[in-house]
Specification:
single chain; about 500 residues; alpha/beta; Rossmann fold; nine-stranded mixed beta sheet; six-stranded parallel beta sheet; 19 helices; about 40% helix; binds adenosine-5'-diphosphate; binds alpha-D-glucopyranose
Length: about 500
């Protein structure tokens, strides 16, 4: 049994801005199911503390970090056996809404401070300095918010092994030199091969430079980040660390995302009763205010409306497809200009295009089940979860073949019909997206071929069980490597 401290800035269903939250819940659960002892550490955001306090907490510790009194609360991830620790520090984490940004969408001014304190608590727990009778063998960090954890433990001879998972290299946690000084980190860290990045403090470099092993969330992205542009200026460092970098595809929570039992759906279906999916489609059309009959397929999009997700590409080709008899349902939120453009288009196509801004879990499930085609024109995609949800729901993905999308969606033109489960295009350009959608539309009209694509997708293994084993292998490797260091 390996004891793992899983350090993350969001976890579903407690707090979520993206796929990191989903992974931070399902990977620890899968590890626990394989008899490992995983404890999640999360900042004590108000929603998290409120939920923990109403569910009852079991143990706590009182720490002092600089000027700040910090309380550690222990609870459980809802509906799960996984232990969840919350770092309560009112002045830094008791803020409404999004964990990283204020109501105007700007980053909290003291994010460096907030996630430095969080990292210090993680390091204290990891080194057995928090007054708890639990010490991990492995500390598993995720994204820039946790990048300083391995840095703070680096000089300790007796420390747990460290893994750092890159969920998105484009978010790096960059701050000024003044911020670096204000954190009181030693000057020796201000070097290009440590935390300095073009005159700024880079949190993510802490994780990339100081961890025993690096992982990222798909084999495709693990290759892409070794070169520009997806290396985001860190490709040199990543090439240097590539012997210690592994791409492991994310899984999905197959209990929550199951068309045979999904509580958000009125009608359920599996690969053998696909006609029932039509009923989910009719429900979605009704809920979204779309006309009941449409000659063409119903297209779906769910995601952050930001450049990464290629929402602008989708909006630019949609009118043509709506004119040709398709309908579409879009759900998401993000940059104001994309939100406005989506709403304007919906006004031009009443009864054909529905746009919902905001976060809506129930609608996300209904779109995944009710749409015929799910579109992900992401410019880059470290893994992507929505294409896997869609595949499991018999909804055919049309995706830019990049990162994790390339690793999960197989086009008939490249793999043949026996393996195909969707359509890919090779450049994030409107013409390429249109051409792939055209091919999807043609297949939609050939019932037998369409059924085969659906069945191939639904037969895929998207569960965390196999993926969790790949993490366990890495934990074992780095534990063995550390053991040989401490033996020397
Ligand atoms: P990313 O983390 O880059 O946003 P992922 O595909 O890994 O992309 O994960 C996104 C997650 O967030 C998925 O679980 C998706 O269903 C969910 N999601 C995104 N936007 C919304 C929304 N507006 N409403 C409900 N769920 C959403
Ligand atoms: C990031 C990536 C996304 C990935 C998710 C979970 O947010 O953008 O592709 O699926 O992390 O690893």
């Amino acid at each position: 049994m390996i004891r793992v401290l899983f350090v993350t800035s969001e976890v579903y269903p407690v707090i979520k801005t993206g796929g990191l939250a989903d992974v931070s819940a399902s990977l620890p659960e899968a590890l626990c199911r394989q008899d490992h002892d995983v404890h999640i550490l999360l900042p004590g955001y108000p929603a998290a503390l409120a939920a923990a306090k109403s569910a009852g907490t079991r143990r706590k510790a009182q720490l002092r970090i600089g000027f700040y009194p910090v309380t550690l609360w222990q609870t459980r991830l809802p509906d799960s056996a996984v232990a969840l620790w919350l770092v309560e520090c009112g002045p830094l984490f008791d803020r409404p809404g999004n964990p990283y940004q204020n109501e105007d969408g700007g980053d909290w001014w003291d994010n460096a401070h907030r996630y430095h304190l969080f990292a210090r608590v993680a390091a204290m727990m990891a080194l057995g300095q928090a007054g708890l009778n639990w010490v991990p063998d492995v500390v598993h960090c995720n994204d820039w918010q946790t990048g300083l954890v391995p840095v703070l433990m680096d000089s300790c001879q007796k420390r747990p092994a460290t893994v750092f998972t890159i969920h998105n290299l484009a978010y790096q946690g960059l701050f000024s030199h003044e911020a670096f000084r204000a954190l009181g980190l030693p000057d020796s860290l201000w070097r290009y091969d440590r935390l300095e990045f073009h005159g700024q403090l880079s949190f993510i470099k802490g994780g990339l430079v100081f961890s025993d092993h690096l992982t990222t969330v798909s084999p495709g992205y693990a290759e892409e980040i070794l070169q520009p542009p997806l290396g985001c200026g860190l490709d040199g460092l990543l090439r240097h660390r590539s012997p210690f970098l592994t791409g492991i595809l994310n899984g999905i929570d197959t209990r929550q995302w199951d068309p045979e039992s999904d509580p958000y759906l009125i009608h359920h279906y599996g690969p053998d009763d696909l006609p029932n999916k039509r009923l989910c489609r009719a429900d979605l059309q009704k809920q979204a205010g779309l006309g009941g009959s449409a000659e063409g397929p119903l297209l779906g999009f769910i995601g952050r409306m930001v450049e990464q997700k290629g929402i602008d590409l989708l909006l630019s080709v949609l009118p043509d497809f709506l004119d040709r008899g398709c309908q579409a349902v879009l759900l998401g939120s993000g940059m104001h200009e994309y939100e406005e453009a989506a709403l304007e288009l919906a006004e031009q196509y009443p009864g054909r295009l529905s746009v919902t801004l905001g976060y809506d879990e129930a609608l996300a499930h209904r779109i995944t089940a009710g749409a015929d085609i799910f579109i992900m024109p992401s410019r880059f995609e470290p893994c992507g979860l929505n294409q896997m949800y869609s595949l499991r729901y018999g909804t055919i993905p049309v995706v830019h073949g990049v990162g994790g999308l390339k690793d999960t969606v197989f086009d008939p033109d490249t793999t043949g019909m026996n393996r195909a489960n969707g359509f890919t295009f090779d450049k994030p350009e409107p013409g390429k997206l249109s051409a792939a959608l055209d091919r999807a539309l043609a297949a939609f009209n050939r019932t037998k071929a369409w059924r085969q694509l659906q069945r191939n997708g639904m037969a895929g293994d998207y569960s965390w069980q196999t993926r969790a084993r790949a993490y366990i292998d890495i934990y074992r490797q780095i534990l063995a490597a550390r053991q040989s260091i401490t033996d020397d």
